[in-house]
Amino acid sequence: MTLTATGIAPVTTPTPTQITPTLVVRGRMGDRYEEILTPAALDFLAELHARFGGRRHDRLAARMRRRFEIGNGQDPTFRDDTAHIRDDAEWRVAGPGPGLEDRRVEITGPTDPKMTINALNSGAKVWLADQEDATSPTWRNVIEGQLSLFDAIRGQLTYTNEAGKEYRVTAERTPTIVMRPRGWHLMEKHMEFTDRNGRTLAASGSLVDFGLYFFHNAAQLIANGRGPYFYLPKIESSEEAKLWDDVFTYSEQYVGIPHGTIRATVLIETLPAAFEMDEILFELRDHIAGLNAGRWDYIFSMIKNYRGRGARFVLPDRSQVTMTVPFMRAYTELLVQTCHKRGAYAIGGMSAFIPNRRDPEVTRQAFEKVAADKKREAGDGFDGTWVAHPDLIPVAQAEFDAVLGDRPNQVDRLREDVQVHPSQLIDCHIGLPISAAGVYGNVSVAIRYIEAWLRGLGAVAIDNLMEDAATAEISRSQVWQWIHQDRTTEDGTPITRDYIEGLIAQVLSEVERQGGDRFDDAAAVFRDVALGAEFPTFLTLGAYATYLTDAD
């Protein structure tokens, strides 16, 4: 079935060279999809694309220019043209909206019905309802995730699995929902937008995810005593933040709610954004609640930007790139200081360790490592943190309770002791070798994760770690960099394409194959993004265009 939506006519009369913008739905229509893809909702999406689509493309072009500059030796630094924003001590951000006052533990996860119910029953303060890195963007996941959220917000979500077990929301107090749309770089190929000049392109994943959720749920969320809240991923500049702020302002006007009702939390998960945290807060100051330290994507961004800059920017095994290495330590301490100076919350990241209810020793180690991670974050001044599994909520909460007590936050802790120089934010010296086990682990994890992603799973437990698109990006980008920087393992083995091909064959021989698995496709994707001469900016872009079809 094909649905169309026509945007609001422009002020000027259309001419042969200026047509009315149109949004066309190309994806198949499943059960209840018409409740989300309503004519009114599609009209709203068409308007968002007409007003902001061109600026989105400008911002993506600016990203490419900046990445080229860094790759050619121009290190990022704090901007001279925005020094007045950083130097002005008076301005503050909007801060938390209703239901965001206490964010000490947030659970993250995809938006399928079962995971939605589990998150709402988890006891966390906030649920990051993830339409981005923890969701494989099949058309089914995109729209049915919206349906799960639609039902959950109205208290009508249930789920029955194949064995007949029924899931319901039973918690007296459910977490505040903060929805994460896809980043600016991602498209939604199941929708096409034709602009005023007659140019037809795939829709923006960001505007589709945000627009459908906001249009259908803003009023109900406000009635529930919460509000339309969003996590904003992959931002690389304050100009990108300004674009989101303008989207928010227009959207509030469109549905008739007060300016500033929307609240955003921006993930600082790219290297360029770390140099513009004040500016990002400033551009979103009427709508922003805080910043989050998106650790895994931040490591990926460091590798991506410095992949060709020589041996001093080569990182060791993924497991050795911890939160205490120089560039990670500098960026997180600067984040806390910047947030608290402006009245914003600083939210910590997610440790990848997860419990295994069938293996007490694995669970013990996960609890121990997560507790240490959260103790460090609480001690550094963070106001809350992420976990990926309900069993980790008490572990994380205990560490934040020990620091916060009855207080909802520690925004008054200004961290005036922190002094971060630009060189510290790119200090990759760790002093550890690359191990053969580390190289194998990257190949194995990346292929197994990509295989699951191609089957529609975005968050996957692999070797007792929670893997998502960001951790897979680290794995494949390290392999690419090690090859192109002529690295060797600690025993002297050169890391070459042939060496990696041998590991790919080994992984494929070890995994349990089943009819309909996607391991061959996953290996092909991995070769494209880890062994090619050029470095794809995101592994999901090509994989999405090639393998996630209209039938998904």
Quick tags:
552 residues, alpha/beta, four-stranded antiparallel beta sheet, 18 helices, 16 strands, 13% strand, globular
Concise description?
With 552 residues, the chain is α/β, with parallel strands linked by helices. Helix content is 44%, strand content 13%.
What do you see in this structure?
The chain is built from 18 helices and 16 strands. With 552 residues, the chain is of the alpha/beta class. It has an 8-stranded parallel sheet with strand order 7-4-3-14-13-12-11-10. A 4-stranded antiparallel sheet has the order 1-2-8-9. Residues 6-13 have low confidence and may be disordered.
What's the topology here?
Layout: E1 3-6, E2 22-25, H1 33-36, H2 39-71, H3 83-87, E3 105-109, H4 113-120, E4 126-130, H5 139-153, E5 158-160, E6 166-168, E7 176-180, E8 187-194, E9 200-204, H6 205-223, E10 229-232, H7 238-255, E11 263-268, H8 271-274, H9 277-283, E12 288-293, H10 295-306, H11 326-341, E13 345-350, H12 360-380, E14 384-387, H13 393-404, H14 436-454, E15 460-462, E16 465-467, H15 469-484, H16 497-510, H17 519-530, H18 539-547
Parallel strand pairs: 3-4, 3-14, 4-7, 10-11, 11-12, 12-13, 13-14
Antiparallel strand pairs: 1-2, 2-8, 5-6, 8-9, 15-16
